[in-house]
Automatic annotation (TrEMBL):
Residues 3-140 form the NAC domain. This is NAC transcription factor 068. One of its GO terms (biological process) is regulation of DNA-templated transcription. Residues 140-172 are annotated as: Disordered.
């Protein structure tokens, strides 16, 4: 996908799901050609067809990968590492589930890297024709302080538990921080490209 000067591809979640993902699972590839189809597990994050620029976010369609035939357990292993789900799934209306993942090099427990991804799974109230997810990928700058601009646990919560935040909590905070700095409404396709409404209702 090429972008020209003055154009930045940064759809809102509604656009990403209600337009792009919906058309993809229904088989209308020509309507969503702005987002390439890639098997994310065939690549390490740095090998994906993109220019590594920490100020950008990249999007891919990916067919769901399963560990075993007739199994719903997701496969998340690459040649050199694995994607680890962090935090709880987030329900987006009745149309998708968002999973947050961090890439780890090596085999479990591995070494956590700066590559982070949001993975959107469709939950539309109609029968989909193809099993796709849409992935939103970013590399956090190596010199970025993971705790910078991350809300810390409240005094009440800390005193109530008597414990410091767990490692998983810290990973989730760092993951959320990695996607800060983007106002999705500012970069919506409707405003950037002056398109009319193209949402399709069920």
């Amino acid at each position: 996908m090429e972008t020209g000067i003055g154009y930045r591809f940064h759809p809102t979640e509604d656009e990403l799901i209600n337009h792009y993902l919906k058309h993809k699972v229904l088989g209308y590839d020509d309507e969503v050609s702005d987002i390439p189809q890639v098997n994310v597990l065939d690549y390490e994050p740095w090998e994906l067809p993109l220019t590594a620029n920490a100020d950008q976010v990249w999007y891919f369609f990916c067919e769901r990968n399963y560990k075993y035939k007739n199994s719903q357990r997701a496969k998340r292993t690459t040649r050199c590492g694995f994607w680890k789900v962090t935090g709880k799934d987030q329900k987006i209306k009745d149309i998708a589930i968002k999973k947050r993942l961090v890439y780890h090099q090596g085999r479990p427990p591995g070494v956590r890297t700066s590559w982070v991804m949001h993975e959107y799974h469709p939950t539309f109230n109609f029968r989909i024709k193809r099993d796709f997810v849409v992935c939103k990928l970013k590399k956090r700058p190596d010199d970025e302080d993971e705790d910078e601009d991350v809300p810390q646990p409240s005094t009440t919560m800390a005193s109530a538990s008597g414990n410091n935040p767990t490692e998983e909590d810290s990973q989730l905070q760092a993951h959320v921080a990695s996607f800060q700095g983007y106002n999705e409404m500012d970069y919506s396709l409707n405003s950037a490209m002056q398109w009319g409404s193209y949402y399709y209702t069920n």
